[in-house]
Design goal:
alpha+beta; three-stranded antiparallel beta sheet; 3 strands; about 50% helix; 3 helices; about 100 residues; 2 domains
């Protein structure tokens, strides 16, 4: 993903803060906004979800790539990824975002 316009992943969350791998802070959700009504648990869950954005994007791109491969030729062993690989990546990204 050399063409990305965002800070490359992986990203991590610690409490209500989202960090990039080298320790660069990307987002601090702990700063209360006027009347946002979010609990600390919800804010921390939001940080986890945001931190998984690069992984979820990569998993979705893999799904699209895999589907394009299926559309262009009959699926066989030379596909760039197996169906299990693609769905495992998607499930892993979802699990990490919702843990």
């Amino acid at each position: 993903m050399a063409d990305t316009k965002y800070t490359p992943g992986p990203w991590y969350s610690g409490g209500c803060v989202v960090w990039q791998e080298e320790g660069v802070m990307l987002a601090d959700l702990s700063v209360p906004l006027p009347s946002n009504g979010l609990s600390p648990d919800e804010t921390e869950a939001n940080a986890k979800l945001i931190a998984q954005a690069p992984a979820m994007l990569e998993a979705l791109e893999a799904c699209v790539e895999w589907q394009q491969h299926l559309d262009s030729v009959k699926y066989h062993a030379t596909a760039p990824r197996t169906r299990r690989d693609v769905w495992r990546e998607a499930r892993d990204a979802i699990a990490a975002a919702t843990a």
